[in-house]
Amino acid sequence: MMDGAEISVGFLPLLDSAILIAAAEKGFARDERIEMKLVRETSWANIRDRVAVGHFQAAHMLAPMPIASNLGLSPLSVPMVAPMALGLGGNAVTVSVPLYEEMAAHGMTGDLDPADAGRALKAVIAARGGAERLRIAVVHPFSGHNYELRYWLAACGIDPERDAEIIVVPPPLMPDALASGNIDMCCVGEPWNSVAVSQGGGRIITVKARIWRNSPEKVLGVTARWADANPDVLDALLRALYRAAEWCGRSENAEELAAVLSRPHWLDVDAKLLLGCLTGALATRPDRIVQVDDFFVRHEKAATFPWQSHALWFYSQMVRWGQSRHSPQNAEIARDSYRPDIYRRALKPLPTPLPGANLKVEGALSRPQHVGASKAGLVLGPDGFFDGRIFDPDAIDAYIAGQNQHRGK
C-alpha cells in the first residue's frame, strides 16, 4: 500500500487544465492518497524549466514539449515522459478585427471552415503585395499551436516563413496583443480566443477541431527520473486524473465544471464564457455562435491515451520546420517519449477499455468506429485532417519527404 504522497503540479490557466483542476477540487486525488498542490504559472517556458529543475513533480504540458526535451532541443533538456494525455482539441485561430474585415471582403463565410478561411487569408496576403508580413502569435515553438497553424497555412498555399512572422506570446496575453495591434492573428487554447471576442479585439476564424479533428493537445509531463523513482505515486496520479476526466466528460457536469474553472485562483474567467468553450458553442464574433463538434474532448475517444502516433506526427512537424534532423534514432526517441505502457499499468485496476495498440494511422477515420481494446466499448474518430491527408507512422520517411514539398505555394 502506498503511503500518502505530496506532489506539486504546474499548470497554465487554460480550458485543458480542467482534468487536473477537477482531480484536486472533486477529491479524486485524495481518493488515491495524493495531496496535489496545483501551481498556476504564466508561460510554458516556466513550466518547462520548473519541471526540469525539480520544482514540479508533474505538469500540464504542451504535447510536443517532452519530445523536444528528449531530442535535446530545449534549454535545460532532461529526459521526460508523457504517460497520459489531457484531452483532445481545444485550440482556435483568432484574428484582429481589421484582418477579419479584410478576410470577409475576400469572401470568408465565417463558418470556421479552415479551407475557406485559408483562401480568404491567402487573398489578403496577395492584395497586400508583400508590403507587410502577417504577425502571428503562438504559445511556444514546440507546441501543437505552432504545428497546426503552420500545417493549415501551408495546406492553403501560404508559406508560414515567407508570408508571416511567427512569434511567441503567453496564452493569457493573447487578447491584449490582438486588441493593441501588436499581432494580427494568434493560435491559442481556450478560453483566450473567446476572451478576445468578448472583449471586442478578436474574431475566431477556425479551430483545431476542424484542422485535425480529435487531435492531441496537452499531456501530463514528468521527468523520466521521477517516473522511474516513484512508479506507485505516478500510477495513483494517473488513476486520479482518469477518474477526473470521466467526471469532466459527462455533459451533466459541464455547468459545475465551468463554475469551478472560473474561480480566481484557477482560470479567473466568466463561467458562462467557459461553458460555451466546454460545450463547443463558440462565439466567433459578438453576434454569432457556431457549434463545433468535438471541440474539446475530455474523456471519450481515448482522449487521455498517449498515442505514440501522435508523438511521431509532432516529430514530423519538428523535422518539417527545421527544428530537428530526421533519423531513425530521433524518430525512436520521439515515439518513446509517450508511454502507453505506464498508462496501461496504472489503469489496469480500473474497469476502463484500454487500446490494444500503441500507434494508429492518423486521419483515416471519417466516422466514429469501434476498435480493439482490453474491454468492450472503445470508440475512436472521426480524426480527419482538413486537407484529406493521412499520417501512417509506419511510413514516416515518406510522409516527411512528401510534406517537405508542400511548405506553402
TrEMBL record:
Q: Which Gene3D superfamilies match?
A: Periplasmic binding protein-like II
| Keyword flag Membrane | yes
Keyword terms of this UniProt record: Cell inner membrane, Cell membrane, Membrane, Transport
Q: Name one GO cellular component term.
A: endomembrane system
| Any Pfam family matching the protein | NMT1_2
List the InterPro entries.
NrtA/CpmA_ABC-bd_dom
Q: Which CDD domains match?
A: PBP2_NrtA_CpmA_like
- Cell location: Endomembrane system
Q: Which PANTHER family match?
A: ALIPHATIC SULFONATES-BINDING PROTEIN-RELATED, BLL4572 PROTEIN
Protein name from the UniProt record: Nitrate transporter
Q: Which organism is it from?
A: Paramesorhizobium deserti
